TrEMBL record:
This is Universal stress protein. Belongs to the universal stress protein A family. Pfam families: Usp. It comes from Myceligenerans crystallogenes. Residues 47-117 form the UspA domain.
């Protein structure tokens, strides 16, 4: 079993990673963490140590700069069972639009997508 999540230094990114770690622990799954845009080297050593301490098998993948495409591609390549994304609350106008990246992931992912609200 494989779970795919992005590694973003945002509240949504941290919430998604936390939820993905919990899911990986519960499902005894491998967690594939994709670097977010502009974050190719973002504390990968600390992240690897944290996940290893949680007892989660982890693989780190570099991103290409388009996180939505990277998550969908990685989910396809790994035969993922779940993709985890973070969503932030939006104002009245923002509620009409989910967000282009999140919408693409929800529509194009080859597996279920867990959306975590922040």
């Amino acid at each position: 079993m494989t779970i795919v999540v992005g590694n973003l230094a945002t509240p949504e990114g941290r919430a998604a990673l936390d939820a993905a770690v919990t899911e990986a622990e519960q499902r005894r799954a491998t967690l594939v963490v994709v670097a977010g845009p502009g974050e190719p080297g973002q504390d990968t050593a600390g992240l690897t140590e944290r996940l290893a301490a949680a007892g989660v098998a982890v693989r780190l993948d570099p991103g290409t700069g388009d996180l939505a495409d990277d998550l969908v591609r990685t989910a396809l390549e790994t035969g993922a069972d779940l993709v985890v994304i973070g969503l932030r609350r939006r104002g009245p106008v923002g509620k009409l639009i989910l967000g282009a990246g999140a919408q693409r992931i929800l529509i194009e992912a080859p597996c279920p997508v867990l959306a975590v609200k922040v």
